[in-house]
Amino acid sequence: MALDAAMASRLLRPELRIINVGLAMFVEAPEAHGARVAALDWRPPAEGDRATGLALARLEDDDRDPIGRTVAAANAIAVERLLAAQPLLTDVRPARDALGLGERQLLHAGPPIAWDRMCGPVRGAIVGAILFEGWAADPAAAETLAASGAIEFAPCHHRGAVGPMAGIVSPSMPVVVVDNAAGGTRAYATLNEGLGKVLRFGAYDASVLERLAWFRDVLGPSLSVALRTSGPIDLRTLTGQALQMGDEGHNRNMAATSLLVRALAPSIVRSVDSATAVAVLDFLRGNDHFFLNLSMAACKSALDAAHGIPGSSVVTAMSRNGVDFGIRISGTGDRWFTAPVGVPDGLFFPGYGPQDANPDLGDSAITETFGIGGFAMAAAPAIVRFVGGSASDALEFTRLMGRITLAKNPSYALPSLEFAGTPTGIDARRVVDSGIAPVINTGIAHRLAGVGQIGAGIARAPLSCFAEGIRELAATLGVPA
Amino acid sequence: MALDAAMASRLLRPELRIINVGLAMFVEAPEAHGARVAALDWRPPAEGDRATGLALARLEDDDRDPIGRTVAAANAIAVERLLAAQPLLTDVRPARDALGLGERQLLHAGPPIAWDRMCGPVRGAIVGAILFEGWAADPAAAETLAASGAIEFAPCHHRGAVGPMAGIVSPSMPVVVVDNAAGGTRAYATLNEGLGKVLRFGAYDASVLERLAWFRDVLGPSLSVALRTSGPIDLRTLTGQALQMGDEGHNRNMAATSLLVRALAPSIVRSVDSATAVAVLDFLRGNDHFFLNLSMAACKSALDAAHGIPGSSVVTAMSRNGVDFGIRISGTGDRWFTAPVGVPDGLFFPGYGPQDANPDLGDSAITETFGIGGFAMAAAPAIVRFVGGSASDALEFTRLMGRITLAKNPSYALPSLEFAGTPTGIDARRVVDSGIAPVINTGIAHRLAGVGQIGAGIARAPLSCFAEGIRELAATLGVPA
Question: What residues have CB less than 8 Å from A225, skipping those under 6 apart?
């Protein structure tokens, strides 16, 4: 059988197909000439760092290696505790009582930081908290006091608390109390102020201080008595519902806030006088973000139950103070692994741009640490309009986070992914191995105190924190450096 | 150049690829032998009926034909009115006042039907309404009265109202009042009773009648005064939000109900005494379906604005009375085109099956007529677990309904379809031409009065209603039969 040459050439020359591993630039030329390219997003483990790579190799799950067995067993326990978590909103109490916060003590978001290194919004919020507590008479005096060393600063995380953005907690502020019944842990967060001029973005004018006083005198006590009337609110169930209603539990909390209000409204009316009930319900009606702080405390209570397991590479906190990004790992105790924090990549409100943005800020990345927020973007396609991107990007973020996590949380099913659970239990090993940084949905604060939110976007955790954590974890297990 | 025969044969025999138009059975055999088949879901227009096909051909958009121009212009007006609709919840009033409903007058769901043809749940609900109104002392007497001809029955639709399932409205029942500010139309619906033993499924025991009395004496008047305190609630905005929160506005209304409660709670507390407010908020807390009836009235108010446009082939009502399925078309006035109604295809609660099911029932298909409910399944992937199917099926239903509708509603953006609007404006021509029947999300009632809901599923509108409507529309435009 004979074929003419051109036909044979066409039949015999298969279409050029390329699988590219790693850098995309290698296939740009063949792709431009019509080749079909499947890109495998691969980077050398540990960004090519030899010491981290060797430590990582010793920590891999390996039945024949006692260290590998230890890490695998420790992670299994950590994941089990994460999935078993049952956070209940039980009370709202003054931080003074709940956290044992004393005079001249303030908590802030992120890893530890001294006044002289703090960013604008955090300094502004500290000035506001000092004025609110009456420790100084005016902003200038408050700033002098803060700089004098007479105020004791500590991370919220060091007291079992979490705070969005600046995350300042002072003794008179009411905090929600969330008990993780399964883990025996308890976590706290301040009450969410809503948008506009608010302390967490560093504002401290009269309206901000008035709202804080109303929180202290009215909202906090009212919610406390309502919760004792209603009994605890199951935040796992409520969050599970909200994830089927367009929330991702970090930047979008409209469903959870609405479900909470609907659940609590009768108890609020039962517990306080009518005028107070109206004021409380009016505030909750106007604040779509109210649930954020509850979401954060719920995640914190779950993650604390998984913290402190020797050998575990599960990440139990990610947080930012506007200067440093810090993480904690279950098996390395209370040490923070930090790196400079970047500006989120996102959309800015009209009139603002990246040059106005403060580097990423707040304890709210605790939601991603537990596997919601940016990890549950598939639940909230509507949010991509807010942070930039398309609905299919939202699915992709969640799928990608599946590659650095150890489990899917069946309590948090994602309808758009055929009811797969949210990816949960960030494994620092997988982050270092894959070079895939955890994604964090975040608001963007103006770098000057008090201007407020100027945008929203996506931040990526710096990989070097995870690499340092892996080396330290290896050291705790006797792996030579 | 020479090739061995086997190689040449393999190279020269392209993989068998088939595009099949119409009946799937023609390609079952080649498909079984490995051929790749692209199925084009095509049926002959008008199911092959010659008279309908000829009428349809004359009604097609055609600039050169005065009839074609009339239909196109009429549909443009109808669609413009649908998209402009701005339904506002303004009040809750007794049906007696709002609808002018008098003694011995009852409204029911679906197209007109006489007592002797009514199904079990509708008869049960009528007995309940007669007892509730005090027109008879016991169920037997109520049934005798209903059968005697002394009760005047009419469709809800004939009074600008809509009712889910049996859809019975009696003079003392409170109805929501929804004003479509843009269209100058007003629509009504009863208050939703929740699940379990309820009148709309034909139950009429003491608990059902007590709840109706509480609606009449407490819930209705409380909501009325709260609405006058709060001002009208914009149902278009609220529904648009809910469609981004997992609701589709028919079988799932959890988000809209929660948003409504959050919006109204302060006004409720302001308007009534504390014990009443607690009772009202407690009822709303426990009823995830409360918004359904509001959703229905909102859709009715929009569709009525698009009704009665000479030449328009836009469907302005789809409804079922448990025996007949009926539709109305804008250009054919108040005439109903009916066909026997089938049993929905869906999932049954444990212990029940298709043999227990009543044929499809209720005015709630008004939601699909407006382009939400089954048409907005893409908004509510969580619902497919309830009615059967997968999350990708949900997207497919919405895409499919795009083929029989004239517009996308930009007020109702669907995140999972990259914020495309819901398909709205069912064109009876496209239904007849494509053979694609509108999908309806629906609850399944037991065929015996009072047993209640036994499942949920998907119903398809019977095609013959649309074919009859098209022939009648053609007749109104002078097309010879």
Answer: A271, A272
Choose among A231, A383, A307: nearest CA to A78. Answer: A307
- Please report which helix (H) or strand (E) contains residue A209, including its range: helix A206-214
Question: What residues form DSSP beta bridges with B348?
Answer: B455
Q: Does A237 touch chain B (CB under 8 A)?
A: no
Instruction: Give the minimum alpha-carbon distance from A402 to chain B in angstroms, rounded to a whole number.
Output: 19
Q: Are strands A152-155 and A105-108 parallel, antiparallel or unpaired?
A: parallel
pLDDT at position A1: 43
Is the residue at B481 inside a domain?
no
Cβ–Cβ contact B42 with A under 8 A: no
Residues in a beta bridge with B423? B408
Tokens linked to A415: 């309808």
Residue B103 in any domain: the answer is yes
Interchain pair A262, B258: CB under 8 A: yes
| Shared domain check, B190 and B51 | no
How many degrees, rounded to 5, is the angle at CA A124 between CA A121 and CA A128? 135
Q: Do B415 and A381 lie within an 8 Å CB cutoff?
A: yes
Alpha carbon A345 to chain centroid, angstroms: 16
Sheet with A337-340, side-by-side order of all strands: A337-340, A324-329, A315-321, A361-362
Q: Are residues B162 and B290 part of one domain? A: yes
- DSSP structure class, residue B272: S
pLDDT of residue B161 exceeding 80: yes
Task: Tell whether A481 is covered by a domain.
Answer: no
The confidence score (pLDDT) of residue B326 equals 98
Q: Which of A234, A269, A298 is the last residue of a domain?
A: A298
Per cent of chain A over pLDDT 90 is 83
Whether residues B227 and B326 share a domain: the answer is: no
**Per-residue pLDDT at B1:** 43
Q: Does the beta-carbon distance from B254 to A245 stay under 8 Å? A: yes
* Of B386 and A478, more confident: A478
* Separation of alpha carbons B319 and B191, rounded Å: 19
Q: Is A347 part of a structural domain of the chain?
A: yes
Q: Which domain holds residue B34?
A: 15-45
CA–CA separation, B283 vs B268, rounded Å? 13
pLDDT score for A163: 98
Model ipTM value: 0.89
Q: Six-digit token pair at A190?
A: 């301040």
Spatial distance between the Cα atoms of B70 and B177, rounded to a whole number of angstroms: 34
- Model pTM? 0.91
